[in-house]
Structure formats: structure tokens, C-alpha cells
């Protein structure tokens, strides 16, 4: 590439000094084009290295940022998958908890029902016992009244058979 520049510099004076005269009606477009090419070549020679370095640096910086963004994207995708797995696990746990709660509610209702039935039976038994106690009390009271009446009235003379009959009538 440096050889091309060298040749361009050697041939430049020939092209610049060659003129056909002033009165021939020719324009100076060709020398101006050559001058522009020389200027562009010199500018390219001095600026191209810096521009290439800047371009490569910028390209590497963008690649580095892109790589870091891809790493972050992969991390966020893995976190998303973990979060989705936890959500699914939480749904399963919630479903199991609901089922367990329903089973416990049924067991508790059954236990309460059994306890209530047992309590009702105990109350009925207590009621029946109370009735029998009250009957005995009434029988004793009636017997006591009958005996009191019999013994108060001395005029009535009864034998044992008649007393038993009277008591049986009152009791029944």
C-alpha cells in the first residue's frame, strides 16, 4: 500500500506541471482532481489508523455490552424459570392445603356430631334417671300421705291386705 502512495507522489508533479496552455480553452479539472486525490490520500494516510482504532474499539465495546446484556438476559430467564417453578409448587401446596383442610373439616364435623350424639344420649339417660327418681319420690310421698291418713284416723281399722290394696291403688 505504501508503494502505491510512493508512485502517486512521484507521478503527481508530472500531472500537475503538464498543461496545454492558457489559450487553448482547456479547463483545469484534471489537475484539480489530482490535487483532490492527493489530499484525500494524505488525509486517509494520517486519519485511517485512528479511525480504524476508534471503529475497532467501538465495535469491541458494543460486543462487550451485547455479551453482558445476553448474560443478564440468560440470568433473568433462569430467575423467571425458578420463579415459575416456585409458583407451580405454591399452587400444588395450596391445593394440598385446601384438600387437607376439607378432610380436617369433615373429621371435625364428624367428631362434633359424635360428641353431640353422645351428649344427647347422656342427657336422655339423665332425664330418664331423673324421672325414675321423681317417681320414687312421688311414690314415697303418696305412701307417706296414705299412711299418715290411716294412722290419723284411728276409727278405721284395716288389716294388712286392705292397706296393701290401698297402697297399690295410689301407686298405680
Report on the architecture of this protein.
- With 172 residues, the chain is an all-alpha fold.
- It has one domain (2-11, 31-171).
- 88% of the residues lie in helices and 0% in strands.
- The protein contains 3 helices and no strands.
- Helix 1 (2-17) crosses helix 2.
- The longest helix has 124 residues, at 29-152.
- It is rod-shaped.
- 0% of the residues are buried.
- The model has no long low-confidence stretch (mean pLDDT 84).
- Keywords: ATP synthesis, Cell inner membrane, Cell membrane, CF(0), Coiled coil, Hydrogen ion transport, Ion transport, Membrane, Transmembrane, Transmembrane helix, Transport.
- It comes from Sulfurospirillum barnesii (strain ATCC 700032 / DSM 10660 / SES-3).
Keywords:
172 residues; mainly alpha; 3 helices; 88% helix; 0% strand; ATP synthase subunit b; cell membrane; ATP synthesis; transport; cell inner membrane
